[in-house]
Amino acid sequence: MNDYRYIRKPPRYGKIQPSDTVLVHGDHRRWLEDQLTKPFAGKTVVVTHHCPHPELLSDMPSEFDPIYGSDLRTLITKHNPDAWLFGHTHRQREAVEGDTIVRNVSLGYPSEVEAGQEAELLMRGMIDV
Questions:
Q1: Which end of the chain has fewer CB atoms < 10 Å from its terminal CB, N or C?
Q2: How does pLDDT run across 13-42, given as a tens digit for each residue?
Q3: Which InterPro entries does the entry link to (predicted)?
């Protein structure tokens, strides 16, 4: 992955390693779970960059799937947010996990989005909650 060639980390600005991203993922997951345990009046919507549901990653599972998402279905069903929106995969897909709608809100790469398509997707409910 290009990320491991270009992203640097302090203190000596060496290249990041997969073990670094595993640590960041664990830290961010703990933060998110802590936030989801706090009482909240109203709808709970989680927005992440990576996909939280392995069935929404690709048509055919591959060894590269962990680059684009994680299996957070246990966290989703435990905390049951109203919606979980994500991007990164550029694939307009959705699923329901428990009572939670899990939806990719990516429009796709610029070359894949026709002029005016954003408004059409909004009207069809593809990119709103």
A1: N
A2: 899 998 998 999 999 999 999 999 999 899
A3: Calcineurin-like_PHP, Metallo-depent_PP-like
Shared domain check, 71 and 124: yes
Other Cβ atoms closer than 10 A to 55: 14
E strand segments, the chain: 8-9, 14-15, 45-48, 83-86, 94-97, 100-104
Verify that 57 and 111 share a domain, yes or no. Answer: yes
Dist. CA 64–CA 58, nearest whole Å: 10
Residues written for the chain: 129
Rounded mean pLDDT of 65-87? Answer: 93
Q: Under 8 Å CB-to-CB from 2, ≥6 apart: which residues?
A: none
Please list, in sequence order, all residues whose beta carbon lies within 8 angstroms of the beta carbon of residue 4, skipping any fewer than 6 positions away: 15, 16, 17, 18
User: What pairing do the DSSP bridges indicate for beta strands 94-97 and 100-104?
Assistant: antiparallel
Residue range of the domain that includes 21: 1-37
Q: What is the pTM of this model?
A: 0.80
> Could you tell me if 95 and 72 lie in one domain?
yes
Task: Give yes or no: residues 53 and 69 share one domain.
Answer: yes
